[in-house]
Design brief:
The protein has 342 residues and is mainly α. It contains 14 helices and 6 strands. The strands form 2 sheets. Strands 1-2-3 form a 3-stranded antiparallel β-sheet, with helices on one face. A 3-stranded antiparallel β-sheet has the order 4-5-6. β2 and β3 form a beta hairpin.
Length: 342
């Protein structure tokens, strides 16, 4: 634990049993009170009785803790987001704003965080469902709000994290699928003589996501293999090595996919035009997009007789072993797996 002063009041930094660091405003400029409060929060993190600890906090401050206004949640939560990525923090703040707007319009009696009950949380989820949002988007809303409430639970004496009590039926999968051999030929024909041909072949023979293909540079090419840390798993330090297939070698000798960067939603929009020209459409609960090349890569590896563990290593898919740095120094098996692709 660490005690420090920010502005006029003291804060403390405490580690939970799982190793996650929590920053808590002690709401006092008195060093003696701050030290006492830090000891109380240390007990709370160790799993001591919360109601008794809350009364201790009130006694130390000589005043009952007031409810945190919903309109101030974003500002307060900003103090806990130092370790979050910019995108995650932005999304959570947006979801908090939408929930506050819902309460202001539909539940004006709910003005503080401790007044949010399971009933209110359920009403908000039903409101989102009525707006025809995708089930995964609704699940993301609930997840964001649950993460925010978890951080505010102890510092602001919230009764409970009501969002954990809300259950949402798992959405039907709308993940992409692998392209068939015929579809692959039609797609590559439709984008021939365009930069998309190189991107498609790179994805087909490496299984890389679009963001990783856009970030490819000559520095990633080491001999006859690609060595890259996928952006999606960068926080785990997971590095992969992918031998370059003979059919993709000339496209990856000096990769230049910079034209794919910062395209945002335009990427899927432009690639959908190629899919339309190729006559490849979504259906049967599966949507088609550029990401389908990644499914194609693994599907064809398995079909060629490559064991699943090797396929997972090549594409940096999740494995049963704990997440960590994956770098197979024995490339013979990986090279044999890639050479089996047609």
């Amino acid at each position: 634990m660490a005690l420090y002063k920010r502005g006029k009041v003291y804060w403390c930094s405490i580690y939970r049993p799982g190793g996650k660091r929590v920053r808590v405003s002690l709401k006092t400029s008195d060093i003696h009170k701050a030290r006492a409060l830090m000891a109380v929060y240390g007990q709370a993190m160790a799993g001591k009785h919360r109601e008794y600890l809350v009364s201790q906090v009130d006694a130390i401050l000589d005043e009952p803790a007031g409810g945190l206004p919903l309109t101030q949640i974003k500002a307060v939560y900003g103090d806990f987001t130092a370790g979050l990525g910019k995108h995650t923090a932005k999304v959570r703040n947006a979801h908090v704003s939408q929930f506050c707007a819902f309460c202001a319009k539909s539940r004006p009696d709910v003005t503080t965080a401790d007044a949010v009950t399971r009933e209110v949380a359920l009403a908000y989820i039903r409101h989102l469902q009525a707006t025809a949002l995708h089930p995964k988007t609704i699940a993301n809303h609930r997840g964001s709000l649950s993460a925010v409430w978890s951080e505010l639970l102890i510092p602001y004496s919230l009764p409970e994290n009501v969002w954990r009590l809300v259950r949402i039926p798992p959405p039907e999968s709308t993940h992409g699928r692998a392209f068939t051999r015929d579809e692959q030929a039609r797609i590559l024909s439709a984008c021939r003589h365009t930069p998309w041909a190189a991107a498609c072949l790179a994805a087909k023979y490496t299984g890389l996501r679009r963001s990783d293909i856009a970030a490819l540079s000559p520095d990633n090419i080491q001999g006859d293999a690609i060595v890259i840390t996928p952006q999606k798993t960068a926080r785990h330090g997971r590095t992969i090595l992918i031998p370059i297939h003979r059919k993709a070698r000339r496209y990856l000798a000096r990769p230049d996919f910079g034209w794919l960067k910062n395209r945002g939603r335009r990427w899927d929009g432009q690639f959908s035009q190629i899919l339309n020209r190729a006559g490849v459409q979504s259906g049967n609960g599966h949507r088609v997009s550029f990401h389908c090349w990644r499914h194609t890569f693994k599907t064809e590896l398995i079909a060629a007789g490559v064991d699943e563990n090797t396929a997972n290593k090549l594409g940096a898919w999740s494995e049963k072993s704990k997440a960590g740095r994956i770098y197979d120094h024995d490339t013979t098996r990986l090279r044999d797996a890639i050479d089996r692709l047609r």
